[in-house]
Amino acid sequence: GDEGTGGAIFIEENDDNSKIVNAVFSGNTASMSGGAIYIEETSPKIVSASFSENEAYESGGAIYNSEDFEGGSSPTIVNSIFYGNSGAGNGDQIFNEGENSEPTVSYSLVEGGCSSIPGTICGNGNLTGDPQFADADGPDDTPGTEDDDLRLQGPGSENGPSPAIDAADNTAVP
Fold it and tell me: What is the DSSP letter of 62?
């Protein structure tokens, strides 16, 4: 990939069979775009992933979907959480470059709401709000370290249960 893009993963064109399943992206940084993932002209599937405290110094705090003369990037995202990410330029959670980058987001919790992300196709079952992570940056207050706890809090927690509990599409899990 391009230097400074995709803090954790860079998914390149013609790789539509890529799948990211049951993953946590926390505390990743890109000096340009795609704090956690930079997707270039392809359409991978992302299932049951949590994105927290990722940062891009330009656009796409969690995910950047690029567009070139050959086409856009339109991943399918299901059962995922986007919360606390930041893109200094645009798109704290997801940024879609051009009119041909159209991710489909379903059964996911997106801070600010799925409909607030231009170019995104919002499917069924999306939520907004605080996912009630146990301790997203851990006791050391540093995201992306071993002590981070992105488990969802249940009914007995201080702020109540996570809205994401029992809100997924079980048929989407491989």
Answer: S
Alpha-carbon distance of 155 to 166, in angstroms, equals 12
Q: Tell me 39's DSSP state.
A: E
CA of 77: how far to CAs of 2, 54, 105, 135, in Å?
Answer: 23, 17, 5, 24
pTM for the predicted model, two decimal places:
0.93
- Hunting for tokens 């893109």 — which residue is that? 87
Per-residue pLDDT tens digits for 106-122: 999 999 999 999 999 99
Report the Cα 96 to chain-centroid distance in Å. 12
pLDDT tens profile 47-76: 999 999 999 999 999 999 999 877 889 999
Residue type at position 82: F
DSSP single-letter state for residue 116: G
Q: Nearest-CA neighbor of 90 among 62, 71, 127?
A: 62
Cα–Cα dist 26/31, whole Å: 16
- What is the rounded distance in angstroms from the CA atom of residue 132 to the CA atom of residue 151? 8
